[in-house]
Amino acid sequence: MPSGRYRARTVSFVQRSGRLKDRQQRTWDELAPRFVVEPPRAVGRTSVDPDFVLDPEAVFGRTGRLVVEVGSGQGEAVAHAAVESPETSFLAVEVYKPGVAQTLQRLRTTGSTNVRLMQVDAAVLLGSTIAPGSVDELWLFFPDPWHKAKHTKRRLVTPGFADLVARALRPGGVWRLATDWADYARQMREVLGASEHFDVDLDAPRFAGRPVTSFERKGTEKGREIVDITAVRRG
Fold first, then answer.
1. What is the largest CA-CA distance in the chain?
2. Which residues are marked as active site?
3. Which of 145, 172, 199, 203 shows its CA 20 to 30 Å from the CA of 18?
4. Residue 232, class by beta-carbon neighbours within 10 Å (0-12 exposed, 13-18 middle, 19+ buried)?
5. Of 93, 85, 84, nearest to 168 (Cα)?
6. How many other CB atoms sit within 10 Å of the CB of residue 51?
7. 36-233: which CATH architecture?
8. How confident is the model over 102-154, as pLDDT tens digits?
């Protein structure tokens, strides 16, 4: 492993098969060249060469607001948002290739062209790939709660990750979070409440731009409370 190119650390995901179903593969072959940004890699399929910096104007072919969704899953939220706000550029970040392929299928259905996707580790993206202060909003909706005690160290929302989000957001930029897991909501509130970078609404109203996704529906069906948190980047 090349020294300094990919730092060993605990990540918020596990490696899964990236094999696509036949329909997904056809969609990938057709749409990925247009919508999927393939960065130079360091080591591993979700890594990014630390010298690479994303140029949103080149990627989207325009300037304007940039919203990044971390853990976009199957694309329910970002595909909905792209239709509602065609003037906004959306970057969907997801580590699992089948999820990226499913998002491409949604974009084919909606006809939206203001979304780009990257199959990368969000911590790497926010730490070096995104230019500081270049993001207007960052969304983190229903991240894996890693609810077993031995796995909570994998949770994405930590003080270190909050620092990375603060790096990427412009002053006044907004970090929107949602979870249906009470213990993770507590951790999110503790992390953001202690951060020097944000003014935080720990019991924010539901974000109107967030559709009811399959993850949220499963949570409410099990009687779990949905918690929204909003953090505004200080100047």
1. 48
2. 144
3. 145
4. middle
5. 93
6. 10
7. 3-Layer(aba) Sandwich (3.40)
8. 999 999 999 999 999 999 999 999 999 999 999 999 999 999 997 787 758 98
